[in-house]
Amino acid sequence: MANEAYEALRNQAAEAWQQVEKPPRTLIRVPMATCTLAAGADETLAALRAAVDERGLDADVGITGETGLCWLEPVVEVRQPDGSVILYENVTADKVDKLLGDVIGGGVCNDLAFAVAAGPDVDAVQRLEDFDFWAMQERRLIARCGVIDPENIDHYIASGGYGGFVNAAEMDPEALIKMVEESTLRGRSGSNFPTGTKWNFLRGKEREPKYLICNADEGDPGAFVNRIMMECDPHAILEGMLIAAHATGATFGFIYLREEYPLAIERMERAVEQARERGLLGENVLGSGVTLELTVWKGAGSYVCGEESGLLASLDDARGMPRIRPPFPADSGVFGQPTNVNNVESYADVTLMLQKGIEFYQSVGTAANSGTKIFSFSGHIQRVGVVELPFGFALRDLYHAIDPAPWGERRTLKAVQSGAALAGILPAHIALKLPLEPEAFREHGVILGGGGIVFIDDTACIVDLNVMFSWFLEDESCGRCTSCHGGTQRMSEIFRRIARGEGRQDDYGKMDILAQTLQYSNCVHGSASPTIMSRSAEFFREELDEHINNRRCPAQVCRDLIRYEITGASDALAEAAAICPVEAFVQEEEAWSIDQARCIKCNACKDVAPDDVQIVDIAAGVVVPAAATP
Amino acid sequence: MLETEATLEIQQLVAEFRPGNADLLRALHKVQHRYGYVPKEAMGVIARQLRLGEAHVYGTATFYSELRLTPPPEKRVDWCSGPACRLKGSTHVRKVLESVLGIGMEENTENDKLGLHLAQCNGTCDFAPQIWVDGKVVGPLTAADTVKLARELKDEAK
Question: Does the ipTM surpass 0.90?
Fold first, then answer.
């Protein structure tokens, strides 16, 4: 029964996808996602539409999601009736005319071409599958990202979408849960709790209604893994929730989405609406007996709401304050009812598993972690973006692919931070030896986390990073546990003091005590908050000591330990004086100097006169004995 | 509670919301969407609608950093506090913004034409360090770029 209804949807969808797969005339598609909008994709789209309309060009214009090639955005795709698909890089609005001039009628714009995604080879243009960044990936969860139009449910269905649910509905719920358990799928948010076990907890509860929550509150600074899924393939998440509904007997669901992701909210809301229209949400979906009502629910800016009990409190008309467990969500979740919370990517994993089968799902990865993981990366690298890799992939290989060729003056990679504020930090020489797998990171006292990886070179200061993260953790502490709100505050104070050159050797002992005390917090926000502090003290002792013992910041970042001085005399200094926001430039008889009392150390003068302004250590050469500071 | 024109309007705005229905944040969002902030008058109205204490509503509204209790500026400049921006010099950007505009984070200029907001990372890290002017990403910014931009913004806001 379910199959017939689904086949009807698929036939209808196939027609819509045919328009993309075999377009009757040139089809130009622009990726519309947060990353591409930042690069001006909206202007590109408007320029393309205007040009095609005004000039009556023989072409259609559409949208897609993003491919993860953030540093090349806007990446515009051009499809021709003969099956050729070519991607063009950095197509900003000003390049639209050039692109159109070449591609209308079937040609190639060589100047902008980035790669051939399908169809015949083109001289001097690489094939996408040969591009190292692409070749290393195992694109499964994000296979549709940048391929389908995320606002068109037919594109999703035509590619097998909702077929995973149809397969699941034919299975006995117990067998389904057993399969998910045996798949080794564990929560993708960082806590790594086995998804199947969670589902089993909920399945065993008799109280109704039961709730499903999709934790889409991706608050980790530097992580944008879930955002890409939601913006570019939203139905894959809804389908995973439908499968979970069949497995657990839940009938209501909330997608808890952070307010900072407006486009993801829009896309998920639209997807829910479309799924409802097609009978893929609501009562008795496709005649399967599964009922699920979904609501997209908007957060309001709170990191701890990504913690499941904080999230539940937030849904329950309150401040998003995590609480002590038990009771666990399966016993008392939203509105006190049995509830299951999974991450965006975990639901997408289930969809993949049911669409392609467990053998396919387990065909990559490691024994302990089969399948793939999506990673986003940023920081001191040349290629900011998103990839999907099998578990166990070497971090070193990822790093080489995203920071490939020497560009002018290269600096050395100093540290790698996975999993954001709560996860810790590792020196590069250790991190680059690790496979991307939770256990390998845990061995070194850090967490692999939700997939955001920040690469840090030696222009950064570890003390400064701790000042930032401890402030973030303090600011985002909900305030319930004294150990957490007081502990993160102390952490923050200690690092600010070290950054001012007022650190003391006994601060290390204080850090240890703090790290122990913070363990007595109700939730992971408190208990994991000292990770970065402890790992910094462990692995970056020399750099911390340099601040504490010598009042020197080796990276010249901590502004209380440096000053700007004029060391040249070129004409650029007049410009530097003009750019100075605080009028700290003083000229006496042609010679410029900086009024140190006014200077805010913003670096603007050095931006315009790099050869004439230098950063100098205030305490250069002055060794302050540790005991000398009170 | 005394009913005024303002409270009546808010009452209509939140009339669809019910107690025990995960509606508190939705109600606050709706009010903020309408006024640009959550006015004091709204606390009591929402509290009555959802059968909650007014202090509870106030406590919730102040818990979340994207809900504001004061009128928004005409033009908002969001400064990204994320790690990729930090690594690439966002502290310089912040120093410049605050000193040129003469306001701190979460403050507006006296005429409310311009305001600064401390934002959380949204993952457009290819443009680090960046700010968002009325939601539009501007970056990567050097400190010198920021001085020029901030001076322009300040002139516009006069």
Answer: yes
